[in-house]
Amino acid sequence: MITYxxxxxxxxxxxxxxxxxxxxxxxxxxxxxKFLLKELQIPEDFYxxxxxxxxxxxxxxxxxWTLIILRIPFKSNDPKLPFNTAPLGLMFKDxxxxxxxxxxxEILKDFVLxxxxxxxxxxxxxxxxLKLLLSSSIWFLxxxxxxxxxxxxxxxxxxxxIKNEELQALWQIEKCLVFFVTSxxxxxxxFRRIKNLKAHKDTYxxxxxxxxxxxxxxxxxxxxxxxxxxTGMMDAYASVISNNLNVIMKRLTSISIILMIPTLxxxxxGMNVPNVFENNPFGFWIVLSISLLVSVFGVFLFKKKxxx
Length: 308
What we know:
This protein is α+β, with helices and mostly antiparallel strands and 308 residues long. It has 2 domains: 2-242, Beta Polymerase, domain 2; 243-305, Methane Monooxygenase Hydroxylase, Chain G, domain 1 (Up-down Bundle), CATH 1.20.58. Helices cover 60% and strands 16% of the residues. It contains 7 helices and 7 strands. The protein has helices spanning 30-39, 44-51, 107-118, 125-160, 164-195, 206-269, 283-304, and strands at 2-7, 11-14, 22-26, 58-62, 65-75, 83-93, 96-101. Its main location: membrane. GO terms for molecular function: metal ion transmembrane transporter activity.
């Protein structure tokens, strides 16, 4: 899908392509891919790099084109990985500014609405890049709040009963946080490279640079905190599960020993050899009583040693 946006006190959508407009491409079809490669003549290597879900953030120049790849978060339809990150490619040359993403996200639509509401004017290509980087950092924080709610829900469920489903939910969240940490670190490196570009240093808005740096740092620190909390929680529940298993095994061992006592007594008196109660009419009941008394004594002894 291709959408054109014009810069006029906020980004407004236009039906056709205009000079100095922003061309936003999401999940392109075959015809749209031909338009990008043949008519706009973007480098095919750039297109293939952005299509790779694992592509790292970076800035690159080729044939007058500037390619900037940053990582943006999105909600995934995969229940095993509810939140993930994807590369967003930003390419510009002369009067063409193009964004390309192969995953549906909420970020770009929200960014356009925000510019309309605040009547934000885009000064130049790098100004738009920095604003999109700022928006992605804010969305990282939004999704982190949702992840935190999932952690609390899984923790409440685990307090009631430790089941594999709840532990798997925590493990899935941990995977999301790993992707977030990696992507944010990549975006941070990219931001520093853009910030230190000698040819554009004097054109940046200092307040915008400060905002991007603050939001990036906050998103990184929040992700790191949640990741550490989750790791500690997983370790704690692993210890609880191990401890519960030890308690169960101890109880089962104690029960086995108690049950073995009457079996041992009955075995001794049931052998085909002469014994004290062989001719006694109450022999069976005497043996049974001895077994019960020894078993009761064993239970009392194990109880005193906290074996039950």
